Hints:
The protein is α+β, with helices and mostly antiparallel strands.
Amino acid sequence: MIFLEINVNVNDKLKVEIRRVVLCMYKIRGLAEEFQVTTRTIRYYEELNLLTPKRSSGNQRIYTKKDHVRLRLILRGKRYGFTLEEIKEMIGLFEEDSTGTKQLSRTILYGEKKIKEIECRMSELEQLKSEMTDMLTDLKARLCQKGLSQK
């Protein structure tokens, strides 16, 4: 994280005002370490226009607090099982509508869809578990019939 500190002194008839501005900036390695992802992952998100870092005079990527927040949202969306295209759409909706209404509505829609997919997958896994349990019970019974015990 890079802190840029600017001190401005204004003197107007013995009145002194001091303003201090602190901007949070991040280099790619710092973001990668903080979020436990590779720098390649971050560059890939940049290629997809999910992140839009500024460039320093030496052409290094400089990420702002906005990029930091976006990366957190991207990774949370990935953890929930959203595609990068869905995540990009949800993030883009906020930029179209600063009230966040469109983004919230779309996120709810995608979230409800994802819950249905998870429930379906859970049902499939329960069925698979049941089938495997039945198979193991059958195999154990066959083993006992042969006069052998399970080791």
